[in-house]
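Model it.
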Amino acid sequence: MQLSGWHEALLGVSGAMRAWLLDTGSLTQRITGRCAQFGVREVYQRDDCPLRDEAGIVGVGVRQHALLRDVYLYCGKTPVVFAHSVLPHPSLIGRWAKLGRLGSRPLGAALFSDPLVQRECLQYRKVDARHPLYSQAVSAVMSPPVYLWARRSLFTLAAQRILVTEVFLPDILTL
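Modeled.
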């Protein structure tokens, strides 16, 4: 399965979607500022192998398990973002010990509230039916488009790493 295609330069997108993708602040906070009723719905949390390209970024072996967390960010009853996080087990200690038990609380709020957490460069790509995150993301969309824009970034705290991928659903543009 081909999973390459992530780029640090954002090419081929303009307008409102570009502004969402390039924003380096807390996505949770940005959505909350534009939405009267923000919510997080946990879709799945499991101990499993991350995707091949994710494993290398977070420093785990291809067959090594990590905590995978998939959620939708909602504005009212409308899903606007599908978020997929890879939390290696060694990262779920110390200051990040509670991140494995967030439930319907946003991961972004926890990461951006700690001044010691660093965010590395954003990477971007279009995801379509060939990418495993696409089918998960569009399961909550009435009329799925041919592709969706996604971004991902690595958050670090000392030697601990967490990878967060955000797939932007079509209704993000209504905010």
